[in-house]
Amino acid sequence: MACTCSHEPAPKKPDSKFRTALWIALVINFVMFLVELVGGMYAHSSALWADALDFFGDAVNYGVSLAVLGASLYWRASVAFAKGLVMALFGFVVIAKVIYAYVQGIPPEAITMGTIGILALIANIVCAVFLYAFRDGDSNMKSVWLCSRNDVIGNAAVIFAAIGVFGTGSMLPDIIVAVIMAVLGVTGGYQVMKKAQQERVQSAEQKTSCS
Questions:
Q1: What is the pTM of this model?
Q2: Is 11 within a domain?
Q3: Which of 6, 102, 139, 143 is the most buried (most CB within 10 A)?
Q4: How distant, in Å, are the alpha carbons of 16, 26, 40, 56, 159 from that of 23?
């Protein structure tokens, strides 16, 4: 008797526009990782160091996303789940960095912090514009969009923190921004993992529905 159950559809042909957007975002994020790594060391800014780590993580995520384009739903979701986990872990790394900065008690250099923050904001807005059209795709696309969105919010916060540091001479604005970025990382990672797990279950059910 022929099986009439539904199977997982064949993987879609990779979207060339999405592939191009990923390559652009990957290059921009890696360059900004280097810029903020050096700038954060020079300015003694926790927020810039956290953002540098975020840029590096995003560059890796975009590279992984490129690698799984055209793969099955299960494997795309599995990779997205891993990326969501990395996003959440990044949040906890930032929290550890905040604690370290607080113990050291050295206020960041506001001018350098603000200048690099503005440059990073422009870079992430460019990425967000290219990736906006793919925000409602599968968990892999969603993870890419959330990374870009969180970066724009984080960079805007870095700029405000630089203004706060310049006006008060305190390190508290820098620490507050780092905490905000940590929360974005944890919550964004949770959203990606939740959707990815749903897709993995859906794919597994489609594969076993005939057994």
A1: 0.65
A2: no
A3: 143
A4: 11, 5, 25, 14, 27
